[in-house]
Amino acid sequence: MQPSVQGNAAAAALRDGYADPADQLEPTLQNVLDQTSLKWIFVGGKGGVGKTTCSCSLATQLAGVRDSVLIISTDPAHNLSDAFRQKFSKAPSLVNGFTNLYAMEVDPTPDLSEVEGLGLEEQGGFLADISTSIPGIDEAMSFAEVMKQVQSFDYSCIFPTTLEKGLNKLMSLKDSFGGMVSQVSRMLGPTAPGGDDMVDQLLGKVDQLKCVVEEVNAQFKNDELTTFVCVCIPEFLSLYETERLIQELAKFEIDSRNIVINQVIFPEEAGSSRLLAARVRMQQKYLDQFYDLYEDFHIVKLPLLEEEVRGPEAIRAFSQHLMRPYQPPAAAQQAADGGSAGGSNSLLEELRRQVEAQQQKIAELEAQLKAAGK
Fold first, then answer.
1. Which residues form the active site (predicted)?
2. How confident is the model at residue 148 (pLDDT cuts 50, 70, 90)?
């Protein structure tokens, strides 16, 4: 059904320059799926913008065109488990409802005695104990755990957050361990069990792991193999953080050509709500800035939803918006489904329910105060 003239006029009045430029690149992530050479796909951005939802959604789309996909999280909050409603661990597990999508959650603060990449389990508890005092060791070990999984290169990898901190820490790990272990060995004296052999064995393990990291790092700088999808929301701080992130990616020579702007309120969904209309105008200002700054990027806009996207089916449904531009319900269709556009708008109805609930609470409190005064 075609939208009404009145609905179009209201939307245009709110937009006022909101429309995408005619020469804008395709506003989807289809380019990521089409580039079959990609091995690494990073998804990152400021906290609270929907990185996990976007990365899970992109992973489900990739699973439809790739043989095997692995999505990795180093977030201690275990957001992947929450998103898919399934418990994951540091070992890749098949996601329910899929035959080729795997997920894993790497503990950012692992037990160092269990980290195979450095062989600390072979040295006993001594090195694990002293290594905990090395600044940045947790980030390095988290990255080391990821490296263990990718040495076989059997997956297309998706990272909800960037791991450059772990990479940098791991590259400097040899000097940190070498200096500390040598110092401790000297303190214990030449007759200490293990002695220099212990130091040499440990540094040999670090060198082996460093070679893997250097190989993977070279792939990160190859735009045929790696790209980074930036996720943000249409607000000032998020715009600022996105620009800083893109500058950092350029410094690291990592390809970035896609921006996902999440939690967008579309003009057609504002209805007659002055609050939502004001929010649309505020968002529009920053959306315009995104389009001005990143005219050579694919910019995808995702809607603000009433509920969290959780569970495989909900993620599958939401992922469609990454591949096809989101089309808000037409005002005429809303009216046909139950009254005026403003009255049937789900976001507006939710706000009204919240106001009514607060008014009821106020009335109850006033009644209690009145009774107490008697």
1. 75
2. low
pTM: 0.70
CA 209 – CA 152 distance, rounded (Å) = 14
Are 301 and 264 contacting, i.e. CB atoms less than 8 angstroms apart? yes
Q: CB of 106 within 8 A of CB of 72?
A: yes
Whether the per-residue pLDDT at 130 is higher than 50: the answer is: no
Per this entry, what is the length of the chain?
374
Q: How far is Cα 61 from Cα 55, in angstroms, rounded to an integer?
A: 10
Q: Binding residue per annotation — 52?
A: yes
Are 146 and 116 contacting, i.e. CB atoms less than 8 angstroms apart? no
Provide, for the chain, the percentages of residues in helix, strand and coil under a 3-state DSSP scheme, each rounded to the nearest 5.
55, 10, 35
User: Is 262 known to sit in a ligand binding site?
Assistant: yes
Of the candidates 16, 20, 23, 75, the residue annotated as catalytic is: 75
Q: Is 213 annotated as a binding residue?
A: no
Query: 250: how many CB neighbours lie within 10 A of its CB?
Result: 11
Chain segment 159-202, per-residue pLDDT in tens: 544 454 555 555 555 555 555 555 555 554 554 455 556 566 66
Is 48 annotated as a binding-site member? yes
Terminal-residue alpha carbon distance, the chain? 61
CATH number of 5-327: 3.40.50.300
Answer yes or no: 197 catalytic. Answer: no
